[in-house]
């Protein structure tokens, strides 16, 4: 009995030691997680204190300069400039609301006050909605300009851009009014502070509204922008390929024309040198020279005729030219013989005239003597 009791006591002690060990292990793990959470909170606090003001200052400055460029220069005549200027304004409004919320880190509770809470909540949601759909409108205009360039002058106008921007702004106001109604400053007892939060009676409704806002402001614009940019990029690449092929063919045609010009120049130089060595007084040499000219010029003329698709009977034409040249040479030769023979004919006619006159005078003299 004693032994059994002692063994039972020992078993109870071992169980107690096991539970104490598990409690110490759990306590150690909770302390480690709390340390990690503290480090994370510290890093996020430092990033919020430094990162947010840098983004707000740089982004606001760039957006203000963009609005000035798009509205005060020649770019104001383009419809795309209105979309980009409106996008810069909406982004600046969103950054301004973010800056007001950032001031809470320094106990400047402008955002947590009444009416400011409702206004800046509404303002931030409206800027986010307008920024997303302004990008969609600009992407649609670029898609029209690339895919349907002939309709760009009628569809992508300044008046239409103003109408689209006004319509998106009105839809954004209607979309964000529930956030104005459901927001109010709420005092937290555990923190002893006042924060801008949702009214208790609207929390279930705002949960559904947040899902709707995520779909309308983020999901749908992302899908539309991605699809339109894919089609636009594909069309631009196709046009670039066509332009590249056209420029290559134009360069090849220019190279062919320069090659034909050089060959013609070389053939003309060779023919001139051949003619300089030919005795032009001899008609047979002239005929051979003309035949050599024809043979030299046939390849260049054939290339030119093939490129222009004209004068297919080149050989017949060359033979006809040679025949005409022979006729002209014969005519010149006859003219030279005529000029050479004219003085002899004139002398013969003069002698005949003189003899006829002398004969007539002698006959007259004999008749007188007979009388």
Task: Give me a quick take on this structure.
This protein has 371 residues and is mostly helical.
The helix tally amounts to 8
Side by side, the strands of the main sheet go: 1-2
Low-confidence stretches: 1-28, 277-283, 293-314, 367-371
Our Rg estimate from Cα atoms comes to 53 Å
Q: Helicity level, as a percent range? A: over 70%
Order of helices and strands: HHHHHEEHHH
Biggest sheet character: 2 strands, antiparallel
Q: What is the first-to-last residue Cα distance? A: 220 Å
* CATH class categorisation of the domain at 34-249: Mainly Alpha
Portion of residues in beta strands equals under 5%
Number of strands: 2
GO molecular function: G protein-coupled receptor activity
Subcellular location: Membrane
Pfam families: 7tm_1
Domain G-protein coupled receptors family 1 profile: 62-228
């Amino acid at each position: 009995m004693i032994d059994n009791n002692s063994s039972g006591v020992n078993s109870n002690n071992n169980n107690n030691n096991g539970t104490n060990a598990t409690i110490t292990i759990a306590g150690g793990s909770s302390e480690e997680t709390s340390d990690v959470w503290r480090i994370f909170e510290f890093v996020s606090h430092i990033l919020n204190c430094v990162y947010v003001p840098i983004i707000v200052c740089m982004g606001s400055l760039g957006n203000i300069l963009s609005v000035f460029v798009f509205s005060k220069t020649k770019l104001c005549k383009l419809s795309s400039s209105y979309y980009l200027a409106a996008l810069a304004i909406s982004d600046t409004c969103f950054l301004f609301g973010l800056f007001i919320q950032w001031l809470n880190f320094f106990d400047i509770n402008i955002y947590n006050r009444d009416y400011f809470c409702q206004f800046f909540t509404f303002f931030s949601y409206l800027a986010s909605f307008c920024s997303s759909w302004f990008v969609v409108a600009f992407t649609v205009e670029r898609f029209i300009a690339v895919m349907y360039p002939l309709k760009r002058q009628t569809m992508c106008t300044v008046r239409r851009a103003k109408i689209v921007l006004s319509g998106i702004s009105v839809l954004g106001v209607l979309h964000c009014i529930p956030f104005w109604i459901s927001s109010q400053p709420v005092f937290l007892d555990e923190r002893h502070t006042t924060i801008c939060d949702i009214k208790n009676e609207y929390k279930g409704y705002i949960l559904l509204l947040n899902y709707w806002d995520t779909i309308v402001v983020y999901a749908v614009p992302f899908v539309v922008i991605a699809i339109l940019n894919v089609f636009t990029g594909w069309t631009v690449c196709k046009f670039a390929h066509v332009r590249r092929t056209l420029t290559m063919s134009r360069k090849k045609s220019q190279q062919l024309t320069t090659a034909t010009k050089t060959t013609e120049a070389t053939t003309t130089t060779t023919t001139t040198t051949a003619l300089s060595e030919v005795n032009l007084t001899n008609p047979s040499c002239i005929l051979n020279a003309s035949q050599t000219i024809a043979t030299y010029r046939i390849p260049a003329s054939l290339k030119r005729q093939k490129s222009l698709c004209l004068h297919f009977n080149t050989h017949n034409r060359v033979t006809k030219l040679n025949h005409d040249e022979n006729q002209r040479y014969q005519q010149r030769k006859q003219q030279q013989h005529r000029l050479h023979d004219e003085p002899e004919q004139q002398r013969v006619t003069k002698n005949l005239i003189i003899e006829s006159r002398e004969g007539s005078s002698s006959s007259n003299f004999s008749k007188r003597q007979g009388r």
